Every structure is written in C-alpha cells, then in structure tokens.
Amino acid sequence: xxxxxxxxxxxxxxxxxxxxxxxxxxxxxxxxxxxxxxxxxxxxxxxxxxxxxxxxxxxxxxxxxxxxxxxxxxxxxxxxxxxxxxxxxxxxxxxxxxxxxxxxxxxxxxxxxxxxxxxxxxxxxxxxxxxxxxxxxxxxxxxxxxxxxxxxxxxxxxxxxxxxxxxxxxxxxxxxxxxxxxxxxxxxxxxxxxxxxxxxxxxxxxxxxxxxxxxxxxxxxxxxxxxxxxxxxxxxxxxxxxxxxxxxxxxxxxxxxxxxxxxxxxxxxxxxxxxxxxxxxxxxxxxxxxxxxxxxxxxxxxxxxxxxxxxxxxxxxxxxxxxxxxxxxxxxxxxxxxxxxxxxxxxxxxxxxxxxxxxxxxxxxxxxxxxxxxxxxxxxxxxxxxxxxxxxxxxxxxxxxxxxxxxxxxxxxxxxxxxxxxxxxxxxxxxxxxxxxxxxxxxxxxxxxxxxxxxxxxxxxxxxxxxxxxxxxxxxxxxxxxxxxxxxxxxxxxxxxxxxxxxxxxxxxxxxxxxxxxxxxxxxxxxxxxxxxxxxxxxxxxxxxxxxxxxxxxxxxxxxxxxxxxxxxx
Length: 570
Known about the structure:
The protein has 19 helices and 16 strands.
C-alpha cells in the first residue's frame, strides 16, 4: 500500500520523515518525468534521464517501504539509521542510467551521516557502546547542522564516484545545494531552514547550467539530471516544513524551447553502448576496475561500498566492460543498451516500435543491439523477474514493443511486465520464444515500418519455425529422457529435452544436428560459447555441407555467459 506523506515539525529528522521525503520525491519525479526526458541532451541525448531518475527513486521507495513493513511486523519502531540505509540500498540496487547512479550515491552520502549520527545518539542515551561517530540529541548537534553535513557528504561522494566530473551537470547542482545548506546550518537554522536553503541554492545553480556546459547552451536547456535533483530537494523541504513549493519544483522545459527542435543536431559521436551492472567486489578491486573501465569509454560512475557496487559506463566494447567486472568480482543484473536508436529518439519523441530480447551471452546482447533491440543479458541459471523486463520495456522508449523472453521459464514474468507496460500506455506483444536462436530468427524478419500486427505474426512464425538445440555439460548424475547421465557428460538437448548423451562435444553436436535436420531445414545457426574453439564451428559447417547441400550455416559468438553451443534450424 502506498505510503501517505505526513508533515513533519521543522526540526524533526526521523524515520518517518525519510519515508515521507521518499514518497514526495517519487511523486515529484513522476510528474516531471516526461519534461525531464524531453531536455536530456547530456551526456547522451537519449531522452531517458527523467525515466531513469524515477525508476531509481521507485526502487529506493520500494526498499524503504519493505523495511518499514518488516519492522512493523516486529516490536520496535523503525530507526532513522535503518530507514536511510534501506533507502540508499534500494537506490543502489535499482539505479538506472548516469543520473540514477549519481542519485544513488547522493542518497548513500546522506545515509552515511544520518545513519552514523543517530546510532551514536541512541548509544549515548542507552549507555551502550557507540556504533557510529559523533553525537546527537541533548548536547549534540541540532538537526539543521546534521542535515547540512549530510548534504555536503552526499555531494562529496557523488563527485568522487564520477571518473571525470563535469560542471554544469547534476554534480554542480548538488554542490551548490550543499554549500547553501552548510551556510544555513552554520547560522543555527532548523532542518527545514537548511532544506529550504539547499533547495533555493539548487534552483539557482540549475539556472546557470546552460552557461557552464556547451551542449546545454546549444540546445537552450538546463541540465536534466539537475532538474531531477531540484525535485528531490523540493520534496525534502516540503517534508520538513509542511509547505508545498509555490510552483512545481521541476518543469523540464525550464528555459525557452524554440531551440529544442533538434537537440541532437550538434551532438558529438560517443560510445555505442551503455553498460550497467551490480558488482560484488572489494574496494581495492573496484579501484583497479575504475582504471580499466576509464580506458574503455566515458561517463564512468561507480557507486556503493561495503562490498556491493553499481557500475555504469559508456563503451564501444560491452563485452570488455563486463569482463573487467568479472576480473574485479561477481557482476550480475547486467544491462547493455545500444545508443543508436536512443540517440535518434533523443528529440523527445518515442520510437514507434522496438524489440526487447532476453539473451544468455554478451555476444548475443551485442548482436541484438546492432539489430536495434534492447537486450536483457542474463547469466546461466538466472531468471529475470518482471521488474527487470518492465525496465527494459521502458528503456526501449517506444509506443509498441515486441518482447522476446527467450525461455519458457520467463513466460510468467514476461506476461506480468507486459501487463504493467500496457497499463502505462505501451502496446506490448510477447512472442513465446524458448531459446535465443528463436529470438534471432524473429529479429531477422522484424519490420519496424510495417503494421504492428503483421510484424508480430511474421516474427512469431519465424520463431515457431525454428527448432532449437543446446549442448551442456552435466554437473551431476541424473535421469534424463535419453537415459542416465554422469557428471561431465555432454548433453544434447532438442526443443528443451535431452536427446543425446555423449562424451565429446563435437560428436554430440553432430548427433544433435543430424536429428534436427532429419525433418528438413534451410538454415543452421550456431552460437559458440566463450570457451569453444572456432574449429568446432568449421567441423560442424563441413558436416552440414556434406550431408545437406542445400542448407546454409551461419555462426555467431555467444560470448561470456552463453552455453557451450546453441543450435537453430530453420
């Protein structure tokens, strides 16, 4: 159930205030979402900053609500430390895009100060050992000074998270807000006074951004990420004062927009892909990761701490960016977005149609991206949930979306994501692909200029006409439809069932191909896993040509996380 925002007393910083702030910020970003998207020209004019900020805030608000629910089921009321840390963690794991990643680090900075301070105050009142630094409560710092320190820490951590900070952006607005808040706190202002000063300082800084960043000046707009931050700070002031801002905190078109006709016209070409993933790694490993990613692309932002990080970077080689994460630790929830279509949509208009494909491999994700699709990359054994698929549909930024789930186990999640997207006004069709090779077949006949219904029918027919096979290695002894297998055996699956058990990858692949081609076929698609040599593809191609002269063969590299071999027969 949505939390109903409540007014706070002017100097009240507690768990309920954080909950109200979160709810009001989410609502403000929801109202401003399309306006902010419309003025998104930096660092990439892909018209999604408002959406990314909203989705990040939504993840944070959901985590905060879950934390309150768990506490309510117990006996103790939620503490400020518990609330701000849950809020920041939710933003970290759900951060979207460059702006959302920075917002997550801003919230972490706030949590670092408010959480430590209130834990220390509680320890002092009970006589227990302190778990944080500083003091609060009677004899300690007032809430105004504490909030000012939190805003300053937030700005400092955000600047540190960005590999090459640029002025005229969200960072500039955060820094100005922090300085204004510090001045109010030093004058013994209440928390509400500090919040109002920070809000006013942010608004003034936002108005100056077109003169600080050439891309904004050319387009005649203020910074989109800064707009979102102003909305969040306006929600903070409203929370602590009980007063609603006189005007909507953010209107995306905050400056005259006749010049906005083509904000992408003078945009410089940049990297082709955005790569985002969560990473479990040590701080030392992340330091090395930053250096490695900095050499691969730009817009590098790494946020988080305590073993969990959110990594965001723009690159031309998404596989290398993910590989760097593998070297550093354990990356997961990997999202790769191709900027080609996003830049064309940067004028603020939604594309008419897009394709979202779930694929098990970096190479496959790259293929889908080159074809104009939004790829959801999954690791072996992972099953994306409905929110991840919904996020991909939203990132596709189209009026019509064709969703290729790529596995029978994803049907329920795909259906739930499609239903929610339809409620948001997006027309969605789910093609029940059960393998990545069926998705490739569907993409091959995708016609973005034809009617939606005809396109869906053609893609569905292409996928349905593609038999799919896979080679995997048994992890343990098991009963299968082809008999008992032992650990280490090579399993040949056809249409999801084990059909062949062998000891050699190439021989088992030939046996699978022979069975699949027994009922005919015109094209064989081979997708090689990361550790499979090119020689296997050459052997299988020769095998097909020898026994089936009229059948063509195409080979792709699946990349990291793909199965040893995927086979499609059309």
